[in-house]
């Protein structure tokens, strides 16, 4: 292991070095053979656009338009690479930093801002994106994802051998979530039920201010072996390797082969959230080390060296990123708060007596503030 990070470790899957050189891997290179230059340009475009949105969201929080923002700066390759391995039938259970995956699934990133402005009640509404709501409680959603995967198996959506039918779940979380009981329980449930799920851990080196070395004595991927789940470590700043490793794991899950734990080694180049000050617990040398391994710069170097990233295309994409950022800002400022009673919608898939009772109580409470003229006091 080098002085600042784990990316020189043996056993880490890598198909593209941080200087933009292609590598071959006997097991995983075949899973990236479909990534021609057109596909890689598309990935480059998506990473650049998501970063532009991320930067704008941080600015919005600093200007008082958001209560909080959780940046994904530096983690774009892990998200875009793994997201491309998904099919439309797969389900995504994110934590709160998966802006790149949301973008790939067709979620309007402007809508994500509503959560951080306090305009959403976070009840689950099934959607055409197969993208679960952001979960701010660390690790809690790993159990939700595992339960959903188990149900997909019971419903006969796994292992039929039909590519147009079989599906799986991918669950994203950070290294800090591996210290939560919920995540460890999810691993056990997934293992003993052979659930079609991929646990995708973005190890960005810190659980808020606590380094990974203070959370585990072994690589996080090794924890999976304790419950009988195969684990793999991948260079999360390598979009090709992130795609290849996730594609293999998802194909295994869809075919009935059970869960996989992926540890994507990456780095959050920004603060944990906009309420965090990373200068209190990490050094400039460490940040410089990882800045040299920026996922976008890595792919840029490879494509430019091959003559496959025209300057005109780069300018067009950056303009597209600015356009998205501007639209997100305008949409956010035009947003209105949903009625508070909407919090009772979509809590359960079917009517629930307790929720109905609580809704009725709240409506009576709300009506108690209405005067004779029908206005709220």
Outline the structure in words.
The structure is a single chain. This protein is an alpha/beta fold. The protein has twelve helices and eight strands. The protein has two domains: about 10-335, Thiamin diphosphate (ThDP)-binding fold, Pyr/PP domains (Rossmann fold, 3-Layer(aba) Sandwich); about 340-375. The strands form two sheets. It has a six-stranded parallel sheet with strand order 1-7-8-4-3-2, sandwiched between helices. The longest helix has 26 residues, at about 35-60. It is globular. Mean pLDDT is about 95; it is low at about 1-5.
Q: Main traits of this protein?
A:
single chain; about 375 residues; alpha/beta; Rossmann fold; 2 domains; 6-stranded parallel beta sheet; two-stranded antiparallel ribbon; 12 helices; 8 strands; about 10% strand; globular
What layout of secondary structure does this protein have?
Layout (H helix, E strand, L loop, with lengths): L11 E2 L23 H26 L13 H9 L6 E3 L5 H6 L4 H8 L23 H15 L14 E6 L6 H12 L4 E7 L2 E2 L2 E2 L8 H6 L5 E5 L3 H16 L5 E6 L18 H8 L3 H11 L5 H24 L18 H15 L10
Parallel strand pairs: 1-7, 2-3, 3-4, 4-8, 7-8
Antiparallel strand pairs: 5-6
Helix pairs in contact: 1-2, 1-10, 1-11, 2-8, 4-11, 5-6
């Amino acid at each position: 292991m080098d002085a600042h990070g784990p990316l020189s470790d043996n056993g880490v899957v890598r198909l593209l070095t941080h200087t933009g050189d292609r590598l071959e891997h006997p097991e995983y290179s075949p899973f990236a053979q479909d990534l021609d230059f057109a596909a890689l340009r598309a990935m480059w475009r998506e990473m650049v656009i998501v970063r532009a949105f991320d930067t704008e969201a941080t600015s919005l929080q600093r200007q008082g338009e958001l209560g909080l923002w959780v940046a994904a700066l530096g983690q774009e390759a892990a998200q875009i690479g793994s997201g491309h391995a998904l099919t439309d039938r797969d389900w995504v259970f994110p934590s709160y930093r998966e802006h790149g995956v949301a973008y790939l699934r067709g979620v309007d990133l402007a809508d994500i801002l509503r959560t951080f402005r306090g305009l959403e009640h976070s009840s689950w509404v099934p959607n055409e994106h197969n993208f679960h709501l952001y979960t701010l409680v660390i690790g809690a959603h790993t159990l939700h994802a595992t339960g959903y995967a188990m149900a997909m198996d019971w419903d006969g959506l796994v292992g039929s051998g039909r590519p147009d039918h079989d599906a799986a779940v991918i669950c994203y979380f950070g290294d800090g979530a591996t210290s939560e009981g919920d995540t460890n329980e999810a691993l056990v449930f997934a293992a003993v039920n052979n659930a079609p799920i991929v646990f995708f851990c973005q190890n960005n080196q810190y659980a808020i201010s606590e380094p990974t070395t203070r959370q585990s004595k072994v690589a996080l991927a090794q924890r999976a072996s304790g419950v009988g789940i195969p684990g793999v470590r991948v260079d999360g700043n390598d979009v090709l390797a992130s795609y290849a490793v996730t594609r293999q794991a998802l194909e295994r899950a869809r075919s009935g082969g059970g869960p996989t734990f992926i540890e994507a080694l990456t780095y959050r180049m920004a603060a944990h959230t906009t309420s965090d000050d990373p200068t209190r617990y990490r050094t400039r040398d460490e940040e410089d080390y990882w800045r040299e391994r920026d996922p976008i710069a890595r792919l840029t170097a490879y494509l430019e060296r091959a003559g496959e990233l025209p300057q005109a295309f780069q300018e067009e994409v950056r303009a597209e990123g600015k356009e998205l950022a501007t639209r997100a800002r305008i949409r956010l400022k035009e947003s209105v708060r949903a009625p508070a009673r909407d919090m009772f919608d979509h809590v359960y898939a079917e009517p629930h007596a307790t929720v109905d009772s609580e809704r009725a109580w709240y409506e009576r409470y709300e009506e108690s503030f209405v005067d004779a003229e029908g206005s709220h006091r």
